[in-house]
Design a protein that fits this description.
The structure holds 2 protein chains of 2 kinds. By secondary structure, chain A is an alpha/beta fold. Chain A has 10 helices and 24 strands. Chain B has a single domain, classed as Cytochrome c-like domain (Cytochrome Bc1 Complex, Chain D, domain 2), CATH 1.10.760.10. Chain B is about 50% helix and about 0% strand. Chain B is built from 6 helices and no strands. Chain B starts with 7 loop residues before the first helix and ends with a helix. The chains are: A alpha/beta, B mainly alpha. The structure holds flavin-adenine dinucleotide.
Chain lengths: ~425, ~110
């Protein structure tokens, strides 16, 4: 064929179009797209690919090459873990299970056409879509703080560079300096997370900066494992931590990142490091998909299917499901129920009644671990708590040490269950 | 019989705590031990175990449950269910399992050995 200019332009435009928007070809196999490669998404992708043994095409969309777990990121701040030890790659999901791992952002969802469009310009077709994008922050929820200020006042509530930054700022505090935390209102990811962070910050400061002070401005009157944390703070960090709950104006707070001040109930304090954890909502892609009500995406507990679109399952922090806390363990548990439901719908495999569980371990100081856990079942209305337990105050040191060691085993187990 | 009434060694094993060491603290009737479990259902139920227990290798703090005999798994889970073994996570997980579900789990895990 003679290549005339017109032909050339035509074909290169066609190639360019194919490169920027390569709609995945129908392979005949049912297709599942998973958005978000965290605790919910990585687990769901892995279980669907593993258990369907090639009968389902699984694509995982995740922008980051390394997933830094928020779980144990507080232990990194405390000096109990390295940052490397909480980073995980997606290589095994591709090589072991044939998952198509696409490092990109999902930016649009067309529920009618059943397509996901990516920031890079491509489009993916799905028969079932799983959204597990975690959380985003609610603009304006802490007066004076925006995402532009996250370098001066890090949230460190999505792990990685933010966590490194917060740790570096705590370490750089002058002797006797002040660390402040603005704690988030309910519901938010990891109910004990802010208080484990306070414990780990105190642990770090106690060794290097023992006269430093910690102030927590909290919009809540009480918090997860409160008795256990307060007992532990008294035992290990006496006089260091001042927790100001909502009854004492802890919810009436604003910050000035340039001046490095925090104003709590009218009283201005100059601080040396400040961790602002804003109010949260479902990862933005849920809103874009049009499946949110209020800040979260409501789902059926039987299958984790969106109550608005049955071709979409929402997992983890982004979902409004009922009684489960927003935790990595919960997201992992929900992912297995969704994976079973998706396989059942697409390949006719057996579907058993949904069962869920959760346990959240927290470290207060060296070898002083505590935990809270519960089991759950699906009712038509929600995921409902069946039964639970929580560590007790005054427990023996060897039991607390065993609890901490158990959390190390759990971390190793859950990350293997997501990525190995 | 509760742990603390047994010999000191067993008590330590029971207390520290989730180790699937066969301690035969309870007598299970043959009809429970002999239930034929559905391994497919067991595989689904076992996904709950795998959040903490690794399938390959082991980790400190959470013992491996691979390579444990079917009988020992059944007995251990019933011991947790009856609160003879002390770990609260395992007591909670075992509490909601029926005899058939325990048999299903044991059938699945036996298949991995
Ligand atoms: C300090 C801290 C401590 C914690 N400790 C614990 C703990 O000890 N135990 C526990 O169980 N939980 C803990 N958690 C909670 C846990 O991290 C979360 O609940 C869990 O990660 C939720 O899983 P997920 O799948 O919903 O979201 P994530 O794990 O956050 O995963 C979401 C993923 O989606 C990706 N994503 C977002 N939007 C898009 C998009 N548009 N396109 C493509 N990808 C997208 C993100 O990059 C991210 O990787 C802790 C959290 C924090 C902050």
């Amino acid at each position: 064929m003679k290549l005339d200019r017109r032909n050339f332009i035509g074909s290169s435009a066609a190639i360019a179009a194919a490169l920027t928007a390569p709609t995945v070809m129908a392979s005949g196999k049912p297709r599942v797209v998973v958005v978000g490669g965290g605790a919910g998404g990585a687990t769901a992708a892995r279980y669907i690919a593993k258990d369907s043994k090639g009968a389902i095409d699984v694509t995982l969309v995740e922008p980051t090459r390394s997933y830094y777990t928020c779980f144990f990121s507080n232990l990194y701040i405390g000096g109990f873990r390295t940052l490397d030890s909480i980073g995980h790659s997606y290589g095994n999901l591709a090589t072991e299970y044939g998952i198509n791992v696409v490092h990109d952002w999902a930016v649009g969802i067309d529920r009618g056409a059943k397509t996901v469009s990516l920031a890079g310009g491509s489009t993916l077709n799905y028969d079932r879509l799983i959204l597990s994008p975690g959380i985003d922050f609610i603009d304006g929820s802490v007066e004076g703080w925006t995402i532009n200020a996250q370098n001066k006042m890090p949230h460190a509530y999505k792990a990685g560079s933010q966590t490194e930054l917060l740790k570096a700022q705590i370490e750089a505090m002058p002797q006797g300096g002040i660390f402040a935390m603005v704690a988030p209102p309910n519901p938010y990811r990891c109910p004990p997370g802010p208080y484990e962070r306070i414990s780990m910050t105190a642990h770090l400061l106690k060794a290097k900066n023992p006269t430093a002070k910690i102030i927590v401005a909290d919009p809540k009157p009480k918090f997860s494992k409160m008795g256990l944390f307060q007992e532990g703070w008294g035992n290990h960090y006496s006089g260091m931590i001042d927790w100001i709950g909502s009854e004492f104006g802890g919810g009436n707070v604003s910050v000035d990142p340039d001046a490095m001040t925090v104003t709590i109930d009218g009283e201005v304090t100059k601080v040396d490091a400040c961790n602002v954890i804003p109010a949260m909502k479902a990862g933005r892609i849920c809103e874009i998909a049009g499946i949110t009500e209020g800040n979260w995406a409501p789902v059926s507990g039987h299958t984790m299917q969106s109550r608005i679109d049955e071709n979409i399952h929402v997992l983890g922090d982004a979902s409004a499901q009922g009684d489960m806390p927003k935790s990595g363990y919960s997201a992992n548990s929900q992912a297995k129920v969704a994976a079973m439901a998706v396989r059942g719908a697409l390949t006719g495999s057996k579907v058993f009644p949904a069962k869920f569980s959760n346990t959240c371990w927290s470290l207060i100081d060296t070898n002083d671990g505590v935990k809270v856990g519960a089991t759950y079942e699906a009712t038509d209305e929600k995921i409902a708590k069946i039964d639970g337990f929580v560590s007790k105050t005054g427990e023996a040191a060897d039991l607390r040490k065993a609890t901490y060691e158990e959390s190390i085993g759990w971390y190793s187990g859950i990350t293997a269950d997501m990525f190995s | 019989m509760p742990c603390h009434l047994k010999g000191i060694l067993t008590a330590i094993v029971c207390f520290f705590y989730s180790g699937l060491v066969y301690s035969a603290e309870i007598e299970l009737p043959a009809e429970i031990l002999n239930i034929v479990g559905d391994p497919e259902y067991g595989e689904y139920l076992a996904s709950d175990c795998k959040t903490c227990h690794k399938v390959e290798g082991s980790a400190p703090g959470v013992p491996s449950i691979i390579g444990v005999s079917k009988r020992d798994i059944i007995i251990a889970l019933h011991e947790y269910k009856q609160k003879v073994r002390k770990n609260p996570v395992m007591q909670m997980m075992a509490k909601r399992l029926s005899n058939e579900e325990i048999a299903a789990l044991a059938a699945y895990f036996e298949g991995l050995n």
